[in-house]
Design a protein that fits this description.
Elements lengths: L2 E5 L3 H13 L3 E5 L2 H10 L4 E5 L7 H10 L7 E6 L4 H10 L3 E4 L4 H10 L4
Parallel strand pairs: 1-2, 1-3, 3-4, 4-5
């Protein structure tokens, strides 16, 4: 079963995403900031990551740069989940190694479509 790591400082967003991904047949784990997410990845590298941009301790951009350097860190599909819609912001995320991005708020159809687009189903 494929593993998805949900990284967001909002417990509500993590809960909604967890329910959606588990309904799609994926196992999930959660982290509330980039530092916790790095620790989770060092324990078990997920198959995909839903990643918030703005978080305390370590933001999504820093996490992504560090995770991509880890052994196996090039493998996970990463979808940024953000309220930012600035083109430069999105380009920076893609340049850092994100595979795709979605805007908050999201629903099951949006998540499913984006993850299918990057070949994660």
């Amino acid at each position: 079963m494929k593993q998805v790591l949900i990284v967001d400082d909002s417990a509500v967003i993590r809960k909604v995403a967890k329910r959606i991904f588990e309904g799609m047949g994926f196992q999930t784990s959660e982290a509330e900031d980039g530092r916790q997410a790095l620790a989770a990845c060092s324990f078990l590298m997920p198959d995909a990551i839903l990643l918030d941009w703005n978080m305390p301790v370590m933001d999504g951009f820093q996490f992504l740069r560090e995770m991509r350097k880890m052994p196996g860190g090039q493998r996970p599909k990463v979808v940024f989940c953000t309220t930012e819609n600035d083109v430069a912001h999105i380009a920076r995320a893609m340049h850092a190694g994100a595979d795709e991005y979605i805007m908050k708020p999201f629903d099951r159809q949006i998540l499913q479509t984006k993850f299918e687009e990057i070949g994660f189903t």
